[in-house]
Amino acid sequence: MPESEHILLLRFGAEAWNAWRRANPSIRPDLREANLTGADLHGAFLHGANLGKANLNRANLSNEIHDGADLSGANLSRANLGNAVLNGVNLSRANVSEANLSAADLSGTNLSLAKLSGATLSGADLSRGSLT
Questions:
Q1: What mean pLDDT value characterizes the chain?
Q2: 84: alpha, beta or left, given left = phi > 0 and alpha = psi -120 to 50?
């Protein structure tokens, strides 16, 4: 699958990505099935982005706001999501094994059928979240 325009924009870094997001606030970024293995996405505004089935293995998503993003079926194994705000994020069927979710705000997050083995959840807020 060729890379979408949104994936190519994200590869230019957080500063260029965020400038584009500010200029295009009504567009929901389509990053489905993106291969972002090991990417440093620290600082990238991913609010509402569709990252379904994306490969974010070992990616740095710490200290970020990802409200309303769709990460269903995504591979977040060994990713750093420490201190991230993930309110209402869809993580259903995601692989979050061995990921760092310490002090993350997962309130209202859908974690149905997510793989959480070995994930660090110390200090994480799971209120109103779904763990079925």
A1: 93
A2: beta
* Residue 29: how many other CB atoms lie within 10 Å: 25
- Residue bearing tokens 């295009």: 24
Q: What pTM did the predictor assign?
A: 0.91
Q: How far apart are CA 70 and CA 88, in angstroms?
A: 9
Per-residue pLDDT tens digits for 36-75: 999 999 888 899 999 999 999 999 999 887 888 999 999 9
CATH architecture classification, 1-132: 3 Solenoid (2.160)
Cα gap 108→59, rounded to integer Å = 23
Mention every residue, 6+ apart, whose C-beta is less than 8 A from residue 72.
Answer: 52, 53, 90, 91, 92, 93, 94, 110
- Sequence-ordered list of residues with C-beta below 8 angstroms from that of 92, at least 6 positions apart, any chain: 72, 73, 110, 111, 112, 113, 114
pLDDT tens across 96-107, in order? 999 999 999 999
